[in-house]
Amino acid sequence: MKTLSFFLLGWLLLAAFSGHAQGRYLTKTGHIDFFSGSPIEDIEANNNKVAAVLDLATGQLAFSAPIREFQFKRTLMQEHFNENYLESEKYPKATFTGHFSGADAAALGGPGAHPVQVEGDLTMHGVTRHISVPGTLELKAGQLLAYATFNVAPADYNIEIPMLVRDRIAKSVRVRVAFSGSATGGSTVPLSSSKIGN
Q: Coil, helix or strand for 111?
């Protein structure tokens, strides 16, 4: 269940759109949730404290998700997630650094959601893996919105699930990412997840 933390995943980001769709866009309140369904128990958690930055000019993006900010319905589940599975004291955040392709600034000027492919490195629980996931970008009311849904396997990030509860946690966890941010202006220098707070 803690393994669900990936979501981190994922990854996407977003930010806001300014007049010419150039520069960087930032949010400190991005959303990631994950869901693990099994015949015995469904487990889900939400995190609304994800920092993300996206550079429309270069297609680069990065995010940082504090593991302790994942909120569960049951306190005991949250404790196990942090202490036994994701070991949040030792690995306090999940990060993603990469780029998107499939939609340029001009295309984003059109109505509706535009498909993109996001590719880069997701680091969680001390393990970094290269991932590629589909997502969408959309301009709405002056904001650039980003969405993605993908699956993450806890085993891929060395998250050990005790035999006693193994049947309660799915081998693959669904992760959803939703970000909306504001234009920060400025240049298009390389992005790094280490530069965007936790």
A: coil
| Residue 106, number of CB atoms within 10 A of its CB | 8
- Give the span between the Cα atoms of 42 and 102, in whole angstroms: 34
HSE (side-chain half, CA atoms, 13 Å) at 138: 13
Residue 168 CB neighbours (<10 A): 15
Assign domain 2-195 to its CATH superfamily: Lipid/polyisoprenoid-binding, YceI-like (2.40.128.110)
Query: Which residues on adjacent β-strands are paired with residue 197?
Result: none
pLDDT digits (tens, 9 = 90+) for 77-123: 899 899 988 999 999 999 999 998 877 666 776 778 889 999 999 99
Q: Within 10 Å of residue 122's Cβ, how many Cβ atoms?
A: 28
Closest CA to 18 of 73, 74, 56: 56
> Domain map of the chain by residue range?
2-195
Contact 192, 62 (CB under 8 A): yes
Q: Is the pTM of this model over 0.85?
A: no
Residue 186 near residue 24, CB atoms below 8 Å: yes
